[in-house]
Amino acid sequence: MAVVIPTHNCLEYLKKSLKSIVDQTVEDIQIIVVVDRSSDGTAAWLAQYDCPRPLTIIETDVGSPALARNLGVEEARAPLVAFLDDDDVWMPGKLAAQIAAHQADPEVVLSFTDYRHRTLDGQDFGTCFDYWGAKPAIARGFTRLNAQRSTLLGRNLVGTSTVMVRRDAFLAVGGFDPSLPSSEDWDLWLSLAGHGPVSWSPDVTTEYLLRPGSLTKARHLRIAAMTMIAQRHLSRGPTRWQDRLRLRARLLVGHAEALEQNNRRGIAAGYHFLAGLMTADRRALRAGIADLSRSFQRT
User: Fold this and answer.
1) Each residue's pLDDT tens digit, 186-197
2) C-alpha radius of gyration, the chain, whole number
């Protein structure tokens, strides 16, 4: 199998990501690192890195994680491809379990697992599935996701660093769309969900690093992309009413966060309150209260 890592000026964390791949029990791994516009010595370090697995280094100037990942998949020789961001790490046994799941159910085009958020100082911010209140009806292992396209429209369950895809399916749907200003990963998962079966696992296989600014940058681009993607995929098939509500609430929260960046907290509070009322989401309601409180502090 192949693992694709796009990287940009992240050598300190990339070393840990690579170690988490090398420490996997799977022997036959092609590691593909796509060095995109890095100026921190990443390419030079990789050139002298004594990697115990086959390592392919691609240097590029595309300036796009979407294009960098696409280049990596094109270079891959294996039928299954996993993705890992350059500051995330895998838990032991992640690849072996996921490969076995694909071998047991070869029709599956996309699989993903739960993951944990951690800060630089090790603070635990919980798991993705807990945040969204979604869990497979199994304690361990993989099972097919029901109403997969509808579910993935309503909830942002898929972490890129947990994903494994069939390479032929990835290429068939066109890979990551580089024309999108953000959220091109969500768009791809939805496209794959329309192409074939998806499986998921409650196992926490990945640690996602929360770095300063990682959640706040370019929120206006993210909400613009999310709106485009929602319109694109809502037209491709039926969506359950509850997932439509969750999607609308997600877009409202996205608008609220963009407004917060521009210090328009009074209006942001309204968006948060509406999102919270639509889906009974206490987090959105609390965010609305916080926005309202801060807006009064400024007056």
Assistant:
1) 999 999 999 999
2) 19
Q: Which domain holds residue 288?
A: 240-298
Please give the model's pTM, rounded to 2 decimal places.
0.91
Q: How far apart are CA 249 and CA 155, in angstroms?
A: 10
Minimal CA–CA distance to 110: which of 6, 188, 9?
188
What phi and psi, each to the nearest 5 degrees, are found at residue 206?
A: -145, 145
**CA atoms of 37 and 43, how far apart (whole Å):** 10
Q: Parallel, antiparallel, or unpaired: how do β-strands 110-119 and 124-127 relate?
A: antiparallel
Whole-angstrom CA distances from 173 to 103, 177, 191, 194 are 21, 10, 6, 9
Q: Is residue 146 part of a domain?
A: yes
Q: How many Cα atoms within 13 Å fall on the side-chain side of residue 104?
A: 12
Residues 6+ apart with CB under 8 A from 144: 105, 108, 197, 198, 199
Q: And the tokens for 122?
A: 């090790």
Instruction: List phi, psi (to 5°) of 205.
Output: -110, -5
Q: What is the mean pLDDT of residues 206-231?
A: 83
262 belongs to a structural domain = yes
- Residue 200 β-bridge partners: 112, 143
Alpha-carbon span 27 to 255, nearest angstrom? 45
In a domain, 249, yes or no: yes
